[in-house]
Input
Amino acid sequence: MDEAWQDRFFVAGTPEVVADAIEHWLDVDGIDGINLRQYHSYDTVRDFAELVSPILRERGRLPEQCGTLRSRLNGTDTLPAEHPAARFRGAFAGVGV
Output
């Protein structure tokens, strides 16, 4: 745990402090992505999404994207018909209703 606090790309603090650090890494170090580490709270991802992401969006550093990752990558929310898992489409329709 102690070595994690020594990491050059580690930041903890208010949402503004975290956003400022990420912007610094983008501008000075040329990073193109980040990894979130969870230390003490299970709410790390939620806190980032609810508190830091809006600041980065407001600053133009995080694009406003809607939809699922699959739809952004493939243009649709469903698997292509040729995908092996597509044969299970509708298999659970009506279950739990």
In short: The radius of gyration is 19 Å. Helices lie at 15-29, 44-58, 69-74. Residues 50 and 82 are 37 Å apart (CA to CA).
